[in-house]
Amino acid sequence: MWSRTAAALGIGALALAAPAAADAGPASALRAEAGAFDVTLPTGDTVHVAGGGTTVTPAPGRDPAFSVRHSGGDLYVVPADRLGDDPERYNVTALHERRPAAAEPKAKASGELVTVRVRSIARDGRPGPGAVGFLNVKDASLGNAHRPLPGDPDGPCTDEGWNDSNCVRLAPGTYSVMGVVKTMPSWAASTDGGKPLDYSLVGYPEIEITGDTEIVLDARKAREVTVRTPEHATAPGPGAVSHLMWTRGTANGQAVDEGVYLGDGSMLEERVFLQPTERVRTGTFEAYTRWRLEAPAITMRAGSRALRPQYYPAAYFSDTSDQFPRLDGSAEMRVADGDRPGADLRGRLALVQRRDGVPVAEQVERAARAGARMVAVYNDAPGVNDDPGGYGRPLKVPAVRLSHEEGRALLRERATVTAKGIVDSPYQYDLVFPEEGRIPENLDYVARTRDLARIDSAYHGDGAMTAARYSKRPWEEFALAYAHPVTGTPRTRVEYVSADPKTQWSAMAVTPEQPYNNAFPGPETPHVVLGETKWSSYRAGQRDAHSWNKGPLTGGVSAQSPIVRTGDLIRLRVGLADAARNFSDVYSSSFPNGFATDFRVHRDGELIAQTAYKPNGTLMTTPEDAEYRVEFDFANSAPWARLSTRSRTSWTFRSARTADLTVLPLLQVGYDAALDPQNRTRSRTLKLTVAHQDGSPAPLRRLSLQTSFDDGGTWTDVPVRDGVARLHGKGAVSLRVTAEDGRGSSITQETVRAYELH
Q: What separation in angstroms does the CA of 714 have from each of 23, 472, 565, 706, 748?
């Protein structure tokens, strides 16, 4: 499922609002922090870049994979159905910077060059679509070229970085020639631009080119990557394989990073293949695949024969997970011919054949009206097909797709099918399998839990959420991730990740669940987009725990971008933080029943900046030592908001001109209450910790707590001893904490309906 916003990475620009207490705006302006940006590709797909991460959002009705490349400081994101286009049209960096089109490179003298033609063969022996890159492994600035597969045999053969021919002119030397070849279904044209069965990484990371030659990229030489999880049943459902990436570093240290970014619905069979290679002798090389595995969403058996059902990509028929019907539990169903007029479908599995021009949603609706419990749509040609035949109509009952062969066999036998569906997988695997220096013959991986790290994740709140986990290898400047719903929340989930010191992980979670499509728009609602504020690598056997949206949700700063000063510039960024210190940017909504924020900065009592929009920017101030007060008010009037509905935070500190980048001494309050996933507790104990934003301890001069059980109408003092308080009362408790350290920094933080005491 596609995340329709770049949730974990922050989005939007800072604008100034007039101060509430003055007619004119403040003398100093808070300038928007640069960094995060969105780019719309010519296909309408959107790329969001920020914080070292990239999220791609396809245009409505599209579900392509994306070819990604990072070269020469530029990021390219090319939709897989546009590999024949000039990649410069999809140069995200250039589009963002609004650069003019690059000048055509000057051709080299013909005597210096040799002619290289390239041919591609898919796994079924037919010509295969894709793309290939040529990289001189001595110097990346020489012979760095790309060609579509299969290229135009009549196109010009030049030394250009790109054209649509099957030919390139190169200086003799040692090259990396690597490409991706797609294998199309047997019923489709072999070089069709539609959805493939699978992807294969093929080629030669180190090959001598000394004269005119032809290079054949043959996917039949590639080996399938397989993953077993002995301790838990898993199955590669839609979106199981999300990354097929590689890097090639040259002798002079330059590198080109490439790969394919795969989302739900990018391929029909969730299979990837890699061609084994020799170890490179010059520069560096690495390739990896990344997998996301859960309990099988749907399994079916007909007698002793196991079927291979797959749900359609949910974005075809829904915007959120609750709109997409799935089987939850076990069911035995007689098979009935759903295409036969008058067939008795009551309580049965209706078997229908896919037909051109007939939407799957229409076929499912017809069977549901006749009483079918589930629908299985089998292809009308050999193999599989997930074409929905149209968008914008919801499914009435759970529907799966089967191959043509499975459908015909079931129709002949009219057997009883035993089906099992798991909606809320209790576990998830996020796995990265890197191969350094070469791709080996054996690509069968076994992911044993003892070799992985385990993260016990608790998702707090009142409904489904959206989550994603980012991975990053040392050579990657951008982390890529797709977001998926976490259904059944509030709940816990065991999450296993690859344990490797060279693989770093970070994560995000959004509450409530973000729409992954916009086919059935409802009332606009705001989302809290919480992101971890660090990257972590793990050891085998390491066990960790992490919570999301655990109360209270209140004003905070991000550990990844603390409030700092350089000279007379103060960089400011505040938002919301939960009890685990996950951070979310928030700002006033442009629609009713959303967020309302007010951010203010005072210097020696004078208001110098204020905004109701994203409080993330840089403030030019004066060099003298002064007292600063940063205030952030937040209110959430969304219908889903039951707790942490209002907060007010005020930070006071002193600052003067600095010679170096200096983290300013703002205080943060940590809250530790024994809350269940619904942010409730019977425990009266609340532990408070106070530290500076850089994590250093804060010897306190004062720490006080007040509570309210009438949403802040009246407040009662509560003693705090060694950071521990005993609360008295029942219901939604509001908290007001005041702390001051020995250097004059202070914080006052008030959170209405922080959590529930029972």
A: 33, 49, 38, 10, 17
Element spanning 527, H or E: none
pLDDT in tens, 634-675: 999 999 999 999 999 999 999 999 999 999 999 999 999 999
Q: Are 618 and 590 in contact (CB under 8 A)?
A: no
CA 226 distance to own-chain centroid: 23
Q: Is 501 exposed, middle or buried (0-12, 13-18, 19+ CB in 10 A)?
A: exposed
Q: Which two tokens stand for residue 222?
A: 């590639």
pLDDT at 90 over 50: yes
Please report where in the chains the tokens 């920020």 appear, as a residue. 50
Q: What is the pLDDT of residues 235-268, one digit of tens each?
A: 998 899 999 999 999 998 889 999 999 988 899 9
Contact 179, 133 (CB under 8 A): yes
Run of H or E including 405: helix 404-413
CA dihedral 325, 327, 328, 333 (to 10 degrees): 150
Per-residue confidence (pLDDT) for residue 660, from 0 to 100: 94
Question: pLDDT band at residue 354, thresholds of 50, 70 and 90?
Answer: very high
Q: Are strands 416-421 and 329-337 parallel, antiparallel or unpaired?
A: antiparallel
By C-alpha distance, which of 656, 535, 662, 525 is closest to 594?
A: 525
Alpha-carbon span 693 to 557, nearest angstrom: 7
Cis preceding-peptide flag for 552 (omega within 30 of 0): yes
Give this prediction's pTM: 0.91
Question: Does 170 have pLDDT greater than 70?
Answer: yes
**195 vs 174: CA distance, rounded Å:** 34
Question: DSSP for 255-266?
Answer: EEEEEEE--TTS
What is the C-alpha to C-alpha distance for residues 234 and 314, in angstroms, rounded to an integer?
A: 19
Cβ atoms < 10 Å from Cβ of 655: 18
CA-to-CA dists, residue 7 to 230, 468, 491, 629, angstroms: 33, 9, 21, 29
Find out whether 734 and 716 touch, Cβ atoms under 8 Å.
Answer: no
Contact 447, 229 (CB under 8 A): yes
Joined tokens for residue 660: 């170096």
pLDDT at 661: 94
DSSP string covering 312-335? PPGGGT-SSGGGS----EEEEEEE
CA distances to 193, 326, 658, 696, 698 from 570, rounded to whole Å, are 50, 51, 10, 20, 22
